[in-house]
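Table S2 (text version). Query chain:
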Amino acid sequence: MTAAATDSRALTVHLLERGLIDADDEIDISPLTGGVSNDVVAVRGQRCDFVVKRALDRLRVEQTWLADPARLDTEGRALRVAGSVIADRVPRVLDLDDGYLVIERAPHRWRMWKEMLLDGVVHQHIAEQLGRALGIWQRETAGNAVVAADFADRTAFVQLRLDPFHRAVRDRHPDLAVPIDRTVSAMDQAAVCLVHGDYTPKNVLVDPDGADLWVIDWEVAHLGDPTFDPAWILGHLLLKTLHRPVVAPGYAAAARVFLDALTRTHDAAIDLDPEQLIRQTGCLLLARVDGKSPVDYLDDAARDRARTWARRLLMNPPVTVTDIWELSS
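Corresponding structure-token output:
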């Protein structure tokens, strides 16, 4: 939570009522930064150290962007499902009640994978772990009737992904409407497995050596298209390539390691449409320069090049999505 948004007294009362702190605990409530869709605070005391999230109905971006705060319940339920499949790749849910999500806090030395990538540090084993974890989550939730029923609602996904990304860039680039609409139509028809919906480097917390990691922020999780999450990773590795071209071989290698681990782990249980994956990557690459939440680390020249790459992926796609690194070098 931001300092202005935090109602420390109300939060303290809530934590007491839920038995998460004792009346005599001396706690420190401090805001955590990095997101636009939630208020997030760290709560620390002699006997507690956890994170509390509360969803915003209006996101912190320049353009008007509204979303249903009920997505916080989706995040809590998705974390529990993900943790039941792979216990050590997500934080534990400590409590979910009355609009508050309380989760385990990562070790203090951990950092966002995004920060490492922006610094030009590319650990291939992180990419491999992310591909393997995603493959397991997709494989184990495909055909699961309980998951299908619990995550059928795509309201948050539409509000936080389709509208501000795919549909926003389609309106800005009408000549790309056909491939973008085709991508969206394929997503509308896909109900294959649990989709994280924001499987990006900023939502991966890693230890300094990259030996351990968590995937966080599952608020737009839904039953859907298995190409969406890998496209998010690939698109962000392309963006980092534009930011640090000298490290392009490392980012390209990470993309291939990630995809290889993902498809091997699927063990033929998931049909990952290569054409949809290419189009999806193009849409998401374009969305991060011309959508409602553009990345803040590219200069104008890099943004123009991102548009060129996205157009290539959408209008004249390569044989495989990772070929874009060779074609653009």
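Notes on Table S2: The longest strand covers residues 38-45. The chain has two domains: 8-104, 111-327.
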